[in-house]
Structure formats: C-alpha cells, structure tokens
Design goal:
The complex is a heterodimer of chains A (about 325) and B (about 325).
Chain A: H1 13-20, H2 26-49, H3 53-76, H4 106-142, H5 144-159, H6 162-171, H7 177-188, H8 190-204, H9 207-215, H10 219-230, H11 232-255, H12 266-275, H13 284-312, H14 320-330
Chain B: H1 2-28, H2 33-43, H3 49-59, H4 67-79, H5 94-129, H6 134-147, H7 151-165, H8 184-221, H9 224-231, H10 236-273, H11 279-288, H12 292-320, H13 322-325
Helix pairs in contact in B: 1-12, 2-3, 5-8, 5-10, 5-12, 6-8, 7-8, 7-10, 8-10, 9-10, 10-11, 10-12, 11-12
Classes of the chains: A mainly alpha (about 325), B mainly alpha (about 325).
C-alpha cells in the first residue's frame, strides 16, 4: 500500500525564477514572478486545505488555534497571574470565563496558555519528527548493520511504555518546558521512525534513487534531498499524529505538576485547578475550558490527518455510489 | 520460528535497556535516597552521622565502588527479587508494596482494556459496514473528538459529576471501613469504586480502537473476496464478520500491542485522579516523596509487564495471521 505523495505545499519556485528571468527589467519581472509563484503556492495550499470536508474542518480549527496563539496574548494584554479580589467567581461580563482561587481571570490564562501549549506541542512534534526522519531514512536507505542496529533500538523503544518512563525521567531533572519537551520527544519517536523506514525500504530500489547513485551523488544528499521530498506526505501525516500525542503527553505531565510553574499553559491550568480543588468548589469554568481546548485542537489535527489519508488513499473516501455499483454488480 | 526468536531477542533487549536506564537515572540525579531518609529521621530527632553511613550502606549509594561493581550488585539484587527499601513507606520493601497494589491495577486495567477493545472493534465493524450513513458520520465525528481528549481531564470531569450528583465514589479503591478479603461485601464495594475509573478509561480508549478498525475494515471491504462473497449470496452478517472483519482485525491486534504502553500510561493517570490504590498512584506518591527505589521498581514492573503483553500479542498475531508463521511478512 503506497499512498500517493501529495502535491508539495511549500513554495519552492522563487529560487528557480530568479535565474530564469531576463536581465534588463530584472527588478519588476522578478518580483512579479515571485508574486505569481507565491500566489500559485497559496492557491495550491488552498486547494489542499479545501480538498474535502474533513481537511477543511481540520484546517479551520487548527488555524484558529494558531492565530490565537500568535495574536491572542498581544490583543488582550493582561497579566494572566494578576490577582484580584473576585475569588472563584462564575463567568460574568467582567471575567468571561470566571476567576480561579487567586482571583486570576481564567479567560486571560486560557488565551495566554494557548501560546505555550500550541508552541510546545509544535516544537516537540518537530523534535520527534527530526529524530524519526533521521533514524527511519538513514536505517532504511543504508540497510545492513546500521539498519539492524537502528531497528533494534526502534523496536525496543516501541515496546517500552512512553508515559511512565517520561514521568520518572522528568522527575530527575529541573522542571521546565524544555525538559518536558526533550523527555516527551525522546519517548515518542519510534512509531514515526518505523513507518518511515518501511517507506524508505520501498523507495530505495526506485529508479530515481538508482540514477542519483549512478551520478555519484553523496549519500546524505540522496537520503535527504532525493528520498525525503518523496516521502513528505507520510512525514506530514505522522507529524500531525505525533503532534496530537505530544500535545496530550505534555499536558498530562504538566497536569501532574512537572511543568514550569512560572509559565501558564493548558496543562498547568489543569494542575492549578486540581491542586486548588476546583472540583469541590464546583468551579467548572476553571477546569473545563483548558481540557476542551486540548480536545478541540487534537480533534482538529486528527480531522486534518484523516482527511489527508482520504486524499491519499481513495478507498477510504465515503463514495456511496461506488459501493452501490459494487452491490449492483454483485446482485 | 526465526521471527519468534527475533521478537524474543528484542523483548529481552527492551528489558535490559529498562533495567539499565533504571540503574543510571537515580545516579544522574542530584541528592541521594539515604540523605532523604536521614533528613526525615532527623526531624524526629535521634540521629548521628553513623545513621547516615548505615543508611547509605543499606541503600548502596555514595559508595567508593566503581560504577560497574554497583551495576553488577544491582543486577544481582534484581535477580533475587530485591528492589530495595521504600523511603516513603520505610521500612517496607518495594516488592511488598508493589505486590499489595498490583491487584487493583491488574483488575481495573484488564477489565477496561478488554471491554474497550471489544466495544471499539464492534463499533468500527458496524460503522465501516454502514459507511456514509448518518450513523457513521455522527459516531466518527464524536469519536474523533474523544480520540484526542486529555485523559486526566476526562477523569476530572467524571469526578466533578460524581461529586455534584453524588452517584459514584470518586476516591479510594474500596470502602475503607471494610477489610480487604474474598467476601461479597468487599468485592461489591471494590467494583462500585472501580466503576468510574474504568468508565473513563474505556471512553478515552474506545475511540482509537473504533477508528483503527473502521479504516482497516473499509479497506478490506473493497477487496475482491468480499465482492465474491456478496456475489455468492452469503448472508450479510457472515460477510461482515467471517470475511471482512476477520481480515481487517489484524492492524487492530498490532495496534493493541502498541496501545498497551499508552493504556498503562492512562491507568497511571486514572489512579492519580481517583486516588485509586494501584501501582500508578503508588508511583506518583513515590515521585512526590522522592522515593527512588519505589519509583524505579514500579517503572521496571510496568515495562516488564508491557513487554510480556507484547509477547502474548505476538503469539496471538501469528495464530490470527498464517502469513507470519510462514515468514513471508516481516
């Protein structure tokens, strides 16, 4: 089963256009070509984003969260730690999502926390992808002893339960977001590495790889500039899955109190709610929103992923007509 | 046969890696367990430098032995089932504490994993069979949402509703006025207390099973042998289960092995939120009390148990998929 690679999303055209354009009116022509290629890339991105209902719903949800993460804290400009005298107040016009035990505004915390949660989920997801791409592609392409060694390591880490290991490991180091990110990255890479290795194995014997080897291209160039771009769809899909996983893992670790207590994120909000016994004060507005945000962002990412799967593998599409025709043939 | 030997080799390596990580982690950390117990004893008075020396000797820390000698003696202790002494529950052995807590975790985990796998797989089969209908759309969307729910948050919500409505207990593993034993009162109480933790575990894991099964089932349904079965005029239920589901379940079984680690992690969180007296809660208490021996012992147990379960799943897989036995698939 080989999913067909998606059309490349990134704009790679500008580099090429610079060299091709004619010298005299260089400035204007080059810029217009750059604009044209940017427009082309955006149209490409748009067509990928609107490929089907799932991808569209997913992109809308994820985009909203990213926009809030980038601009939210700038727009509301309030200190999430500021104490007020309104302790544990239900939602009102002054405090949209009420206040917590310290009288801190939950809505402000939620918006500021979005930045930390989204950012660290993406950073950690990226770290995981770098490890899995390196291990999977190098092992799959080189084969032999290197592959055997990397496969064994991958399989060993695949068997070891990630979360308990992360909990124990995090305990031994100082509490900061970067510690959590590193520990989560080190315990979550094997799945992606395994998928990418399998794909690289089948890629290795393709003609374009043989050709670049015959031309005498360097091994690292073949792996990362020839094979990797052809696996970008799988890399993207496993980046999304990984990001969901690490979003949950990071939040769970923060919920257990391993987070950085000078920063605010969805996970630390839940930790505060748990330790401040929000439950027994019936302060639902304190602990419900961060969890809902995590689930929504996760669902958005999952929708994006399932949608991409459907684009890549037409069999997963919900084509009623085709099924009926199948039955008609059967009958 | 080669496949089985290879897998067993990987499992042995995994256990060895876990043991080694377990050995090195506490030694990388600042402070040592002897000092922690010493400090705790010091609060009650009656200590002298000799006490610290004795504790260090007992815990085997801060010695002048080279690292490899410590490593060998650590392995030797492990083989004899000696995981050290708990510092939070001093002077109880780690092995005793684990032995006492593991029963709760085992029952809670096995019941909820089996229920969730069965339910999720059945739902996946039905939804794939009726794909494109309203049932599929609704269930798939709801499950996509459940799929990415933060487990402890779900548990918090459950505790919240249990607290406000007052239907189910939301802490402890049984009614503390009863003495644990094989009598009806205790078992009923334990089941009553386990209901909410099990329910939240099932809700948070059922989505994964359903979505895996649905995707794999949809792929299988477009196979020629399913068309053939339909052409033969076999009953729908027979095609659904004996033809499509029988072949579609393989990825779920593989997923089962991988999900075990996740489920164990979920159980850890469930026990913490519900203060459920299993090993997950014990691990949490151990970490909060900087009880390295107990934390490492529990981590080791969790890893070994997951590895063993993987082995079981491998055997099950080779029973379900004849191709594995004939070594045609990796």
């Amino acid at each position: 089963m080989k999913p067909t690679p998606l059309p490349p999303i990134s704009a790679s055209a500008p580099d090429k256009t610079n060299g091709v354009s004619a010298p005299p009116p260089r400035q204007s022509s080059a810029t217009s070509k750059v604009f044209a290629s940017i427009r082309h890339a955006l149209r490409r991105l748009w067509s990928v984003m609107t490929a089907n209902r799932k991808v569209m719903a997913g992109s809308v949800i994820v985009s909203i969260f990213i926009l809030v993460a980038v601009f939210g804290p700038i727009i509301i400009r309030q200190n999430p730690f500021a104490y007020t005298k309104d302790l544990v107040q239900p939602p009102s016009s002054a405090h949209w999502l009420g206040t917590n035990q310290g009288g801190q505004d939950v809505f402000v915390q939620l918006i500021v926390g979005t930045r930390s949660s989204v950012m660290w989920a993406l950073i950690t997801g990226l770290m995981v992808m770098v490890i899995s791409v390196a291990v999977g592609l190098v092992g799959g392409y080189l084969g032999g002893v290197v592959d055997d060694a990397l496969s064994v390591i991958t399989n060993v880490f695949l068997v070891v339960p990630a979360f308990p290991l992360a909990v124990v490991a995090v305990e031994y180091f100082n509490r900061s977001s970067i510690t959590i990110a590193i520990v989560v990255a080190l315990t979550n890479w094997p799945w992606g590495a395994r998928v990418l290795r399998a794909q690289t194995l089948s890629m290795r014997s393709r003609e374009f790889v043989t050709a670049s080897r015959a031309v005498g291209e360097k091994t690292w160039r073949i792996i990362f500039l020839e094979i990797l771009p052809n696996e970008i769809a799988i890399v993207a899909a496993s980046f999304i899955t990984t990001t969901i996983q690490v979003l949950l893992a990071v939040a769970a670790l923060e919920f257990l109190g391993f987070g950085d207590n000078r920063a605010i994120s969805w996970g630390t909000m839940l930790y505060d709610a748990q330790t401040g016994s929000a439950l027994f004060q019936v302060a639902w507005w304190w602990f419900a929103p961060p969890g809902l945000c995590i689930a929504l962002l996760g669902a958005g990412l999952a929708l994006l992923n399932f949608g991409i799967d459907e684009v890549a593998d037409p069999r997963l599409r919900q084509l009623k007509r085709r099924v009926r025709r199948g039955k008609a043939v059967a009958a | 046969m080669r496949h089985v030997i290879r897998r067993i080799g990987i499992y042995l390596l995994a256990i060895w890696a876990a043991v080694t990580i377990n050995f090195f982690l506490p030694r990388l950390a600042p402070g040592n367990p002897a000092e922690i117990v010493y400090d705790r004893l010091a609060q009650h008075g009656a200590v002298n430098p000799a006490t610290l020396k004795a504790l260090e000797l007992e815990f085997g820390v801060n010695t002048t032995d080279p690292l490899w000698v410590q490593y060998i003696s650590y392995l030797n202790n492990l083989i004899h089932g000696n995981l050290g002494v708990s510092t939070t529950f001093y002077p109880h052995n780690v092995t005793d504490i684990i032995g006492q807590d593991i029963k709760f975790t085992l029952v809670l985990l096995s019941v909820s994993v089996i229920l969730s796998f069965t339910l999720g797989t059945l739902l996946g089969i039905v939804v794939a069979w009726k794909r494109g209908t309203a049932l599929d759309t609704v269930l798939s969307s709801v499950m996509t949402f459940f799929y990415s729910i933060l487990y402890p948050w779900l548990a918090l919500m459950a505790v919240y509703f249990a607290f406000t409505i007052g239907w189910f207990p939301f802490s402890d593993g049984y009614d503390l006025s009863l003495t644990p034993g094989w009598n009806l009162d205790f078992l009923m109480s334990a089941a009553y207390h386990a209901f909410l933790p099990a329910l939240t575990l099932i809700i948070s894991t059922v989505a994964g099973w359903m979505l895996t099964m649905r995707n794999s089932m949809v792929t299988t349904l477009s196979e020629d042998y399913v068309l053939m079965a339909q052409a033969k005029g076999l009953r729908q239920r027979r095609i659904m289960f004996a033809y499509a589901a029988r072949n579609a379940i393989l990825p779920s079984v593989t997923g089962f092995a991988i999900a075990l680690g996740t489920v164990v992690g979920g159980a850890l969180l469930v026990e913490i939120v519900f203060s459920y007296p299993g090993i997950g809660y014990a691990l949490f208490q151990a970490i909060q009390g900087q009880d390295y021996f107990l934390a490492d012992g529990i981590l080791l147990l969790i890893i070994v148990a997951t590895v063993l379960m993987n082995l079981v799943v491998d055997v099950l897989y080779s029973v379900l998929d004849p191709r594995v036995r004939q070594e045609r698939s990796a």
